[in-house]
Amino acid sequence: MTDSVVAASNPARGPSRVSSWSLLFNNRLAAIGLLLLGALVLVALLAPVLPLPDPNATALAQRLQPLLSEGQLLGTDELGRDILSRLIWGSRVSMTVGFAATLVAAAIGSAIGLLSGYAGGRMDNVMMRGIDMLMAFPYILLALAIVAALGPGLMNALYAIAVVNIPFFARNVRGVTLALSRAEFVDAARLSGKGHLSVLCTELLPNVLPVIVITMSTTAGWMILETAGLSFLGLGAQPPQADLGSMLGAGRAQLFTAPHVSVVPGVMIFLIVISLNVLGDGIRDILDPRLRSGALLRPGPRTAVHPDRTSPKNGNTDAVLNVEALETGFIRNGRYTAAVQEISLHLNPGECLGLIGESGSGKSVTALSIMGLVNSPPGLIRNGAIYLDGEDVLAMPEIRLISCRGSRVAYIFQDPLTTLHPMHPIGRQVEEAIAAHQRLDRQTLRKHSIMLLERVGIPDAGERAKHFPHQLSGGQRQRVGIAMALANDPDVIIADEPTTALDVTVQAQILDLLRDLQKERGMALLFITHDFGVVAEVCDRVAVMKDGVVVETGETQALLSNPQHNYTKRLIACVPEIGQGQDFLNRVSKLFRPEQSV
Amino acid sequence: MSAYVAKRLLSVIPVLFGLSIIVFLVMSMIPGDPATAILGAYATPENVERINRDLGLDKPLVQQYFIWIGNVLQGDFGRSFALNRPVLDEVTERFQATLILAGVSLVLCSVVGLVAGVISAVRQFGWADKVITFVVLAGISMPSFWLGLILILLFAVKWRLLPASGMYAIYGGGDFKDLLLHLVLPALTLAVVAAGVIARLTRAAMLEVLRQDFIRTARAKGLSERRVIYRHAFRAALVSVIPIIGIQAGFVLGGAVYIETVFQWPGIGAMLVNAISTRDILLVQGGVLVVAASYVLFNLAADLLQTMLDPRIGS
Q1: H helices, E strands: number in chain B
Q2: Distance (Å, rounded) from C-alpha A312 to C-alpha A395?
Q3: What span, in angstroms and rounded, lies between the C-alpha atoms of B83 and B93?
């Protein structure tokens, strides 16, 4: 979470950069792919020096020998030629053509992409429309048309496949170049007097290289497959030259009598392509920073709870919600880092507790931990207990926890645009919240949801219920969020910065609404914010958080008039008052001098 | 939204126009004298001259294009020399068979791909995910024509369960059940690669969506995990997978070339391969144009479906 926490718990950790190669070898699958591909390439390269029979020597007396025959490990084909020898020579041809096509496509496609992205404007437009046209063809069909025009043959197949793959390179490279060519370092290079060509080659090319490598690694496999495909159809390699595809195609005639003649070359193609694909995936994972950060982990239905957590007794049996010594953290790259520690809070029935602190201080992690909503992985509740009416939430079975969400503890989140489902009408989202805990028929559900929407101040709620979130204003969206939280009359509402994403006048309206509702329904409210002004307005008590721990708690009035902790003092001082002007800055800046800090 | 749909519909016209230009240009790349290429080395001079005149080959390239496209728009794709019948008739007949095969394959790969992708994402790193990931990897790495041969060996030769070739049985076939039996192997083979690609992208889309804020909201409401996954996450992931399915239509239509050859399916792909080896250029031109145009329409359909599913598009 906060940098300071990470730094504090890992004081010895230096900036160690892992090289891409070692990452590749750590990825077991990619390493296997690399080794397999390396072996296949090596064998193909060594074909001239290996003790192999002539791949084109026919021996009709020896025709269609089965697998594992004496002297012919993989048997012979319809002309009595040794299949093993043909396989190795054939894979040499297939790989050469496939890799050559990859290089040609990469060179031409990247050049188009670089130029298009760098030039921008009309040139970019024209080039990209052309690329779009090429992509409007079904992949193989265009290659087929090109071969049809140029005539069958291995070189023509190579051209056709390269052309068909140019768009992938052009598009990917153009996207990155477009973003880069507006970067400051490119401007600087231009100002220093470098010509366009020099900027393209020395400034842009090195930076788009990862994209080119990624695209090569994902398309090389296809290109090998396509080469084999065209040869299989008799449009690639022409006899007596043979690649894997044409071997497979020729062997088809003996499919029923000697299946190995066509099956064996297919296995070879498969091995080459799968090793390329596995390696390509590995390369992509390493070069694509978004995938490397482990962003694509599926969060489970509840936050993981460590089995050996400390489980303190419920020290406050009157509270509707009592958090005891909670510690929640995150596991990244196998190491655990605490985000919040020793958090103890309680919430009495009907009371409003403010939880205040700067962004990154752990307020949200604390709030989300209560109902197990911290994404996990990577989240982990390491220690502590959370008592809801005396029952430990962390010990609840999953079904019971889910049944408590929304019915006993409900949430209101910060940004209502991202927290409402973008493709469901808002009325249905409220209905769904009710239906999760009450068995009602459709009509009653609809009536209830419209009543709730009206209660939170959405005008013309019956009609509005059919609208989607993007059709509402920010304030109205937040009202929908509040309506969903109220749907089952919960005992506790946790509002996680409910007004932060709204403008000031709407903030005030939403705060009024929350305060009214809290009084009207007697709910307890845990109100998370970074704004002391808001706290003073709505909260009975306050807890101040910094760097993952609660530094001070107390009655709002007492804490405001007599803050104990330095950090609290600074927070309070930062609430501006009308008419202070320069005084305000003088007063505040004193508090932030280094010698004054904690 | 209807303005958006209209705009999208209109955008098809320049694309089709562009396609026709590319097809025309590719075909005009044919080296040497096209008339000899069409008629072969033993053509009589009168025939060569007639062809040149018929095709307008004595005129400049731009003019040739407009003559050609004008004829195409009137349904005149020329005459196939090898088959001695109008290209349009042959292409229409063949295209029906391809549409049946490609359509069934597309449905198959979408269903299998989506289901596999969702399971894979929901059970991330579990055994189901590992099995699916491996099968998908194998599926997208094998030549489809090779897989077709193996399926023929197993299902038609060894176990004698399914027919190995053709669209209908030669004797006593011709009904719907017969067609379905003949469809199983080719449609399955054709679907494998596309299903793999869809499964991969569905998995990634689901994992992406499951981390979104609105999924947390759904959980906070107390919805069951099932409902969170299917009603909330899948609904959102589907929107980003649908264009991918549109693109797979291209792989299926193109892949039909191999599969129709392997299973002797009387479709346009097999026709193209034959036409290329007999240098029946007009037939190739017509066939490529029709398949490419149908791919554009598949993509259009995918886009419109996406617009229907995502209320945010076009508003």
Answers
A1: 13, 2
A2: 12
A3: 13
| Residues of chain B found within 8 Å of residue A402, distances taken between Cβ atoms | 219, 222-225
Q: What is the C-alpha to C-alpha distance for residues B165 and A134, in angstroms, rounded to an integer?
A: 33
Q: Are A213 and A280 in contact (CB under 8 A)?
A: no
The larger pLDDT score, comparing residue B41 to residue B223, is at B223
Burial of residue A60 (number of CB atoms within 10 Å: 0-12, 13-18, 19+): exposed
pLDDT tens, residue by residue, B149-184:
999 999 998 898 888 888 887 776 678 888 999 999
Q: Which amino acid is at A6?
A: V
Residue type, A223: M
Q: A141 to chain B: which residues are within 8 Å by CB?
A: 250, 253-254, 257, 272, 288, 291-292, 295
Q: What is the pLDDT of residue A357?
A: 86
Whether the predicted model's global pTM rises above the 0.80 cut: yes
Contact A225/B at CB under 8 A: yes
**CA geometry: angle B178, B183, B185, nearest 5 deg:** 125
Cα(A253)–Cα(A301) distance, integer angstroms: 55
Query: A466 φ, ψ to 5°?
Result: -85, -10
CATH of domain A27-48+82-293: 1.10.3720.10
- Contacts for A295 with CB less than 8 Å, ≥ 6 apart: B211
Kindly report which listed range (A271-280, A397-406, B74-83, B127-136) carries the lowest average pLDDT score. Answer: B74-83
Tell me which residue in B157, B213, B296 faces A136 most closely, judged by beta carbons: B296
Q: Give me the interface pTM, i.e. the ipTM.
A: 0.91
User: Confidence class of residue A292 from pLDDT cuts 50, 70 and 90?
Assistant: low
Residues A37-58 pLDDT 10s: 999 999 999 988 888 888 887 8
Residue B130 corresponds to which tokens in the numbers above?
Answer: 């590992």
Q: With a cut of 90, say whether residue B120 has pLDDT above it.
A: yes
Closest CA in chain B for residue A226: B143
CA distance A537 to A320: 23
DSSP state for residue B154 in the 8-state scheme: I
Percent of chain B with pLDDT over 70: 93
- Are the CB atoms for A572 and A552 separated by under 8 Å? no
Tell me how close the Cα of A571 comes to any Cα of chain B, in angstroms: 29
Task: Please give the structure tokens belonging to residue A271.
Answer: 């091995």
